[in-house]
Amino acid sequence: LANAAAARGSRVLFIDTNNAGGGQKEPQPGLLDVLRGEYAFEALSQYAPGSNVAVLGKGRPKAAFSEAQGVYFTQHMLAQASRNFELVIVDGGALADNLNASPLVAMVDEIVLVATLNATPMRDVTAASQAISVMGRLP
To answer: What is the number of alpha carbons within 13 Å of residue 37 lying toward its C-beta?
Structure first.
């Protein structure tokens, strides 16, 4: 989705909060650091070489942040992002397993649930729908 929008000339911010996929041994500063107020997102979002897609990684899960703090910094980050990007995509992975995405869920314009036909169990779809509701959005 990000690459398709970028190919049409849109500037895209891709925020990867997905818990799946292993990852780096030493996490780099990213979204979690922004939500704690330790970094401005502009300092951490990096454009992929030769692309209109800027990437902001998950960040370091070193310390928890309060809900109010997360909401405040999420609002600030999204306001800044709307001035610099035509599209912001957040890959929250399985939302039922990723509470770090909750400040974003209530503030985004749209939520796209990605499931594989005849492969994704219905219980996973139901869990995602319930997580979205708990995080402040009606599915």
So the answer is: 10
- The alpha carbon of 118 is separated from its chain's Cα centroid by a whole number of angstroms, namely 26
pLDDT tens readout for residues 52-108? 999 998 888 876 777 788 788 889 999 999 999 999 998 877 776 766 677 777 788
Which architecture does CATH list for 2-134?
3-Layer(aba) Sandwich (3.40)
**Matching residue, tokens 């990000």:** 2
The residue ranges of DSSP E strands in 36-135, in sequence order, are 46-47, 53-56, 87-91
Q: What are phi and psi of 40, to 5 degrees?
A: -85, 140
70 within 8 A of 29, measured Cβ to Cβ: no
Rounded to whole angstroms, the Cα distance separating 98 from 86 reads: 26
